[in-house]
Amino acid sequence: MECTVRWTGLSGMTFTAETGSGHLVTMDGAPEGGGRNLAPRPMEVVLAGTGGCTAYDVVLILRKSGQDVRGCDVTLKSERAEKDPKVFTSIHFHFTVRGRNLKPNLVERAIKLSHEKYCSASIMLEKTAAMTHTFEIVDDLGEPPAP
Question: Which of 3.30.70.260, 3.30.300.20, 3.40.50.920, 3.40.50.2300 is the CATH number of 42-139?
Answer without folding.
Answer: 3.30.300.20
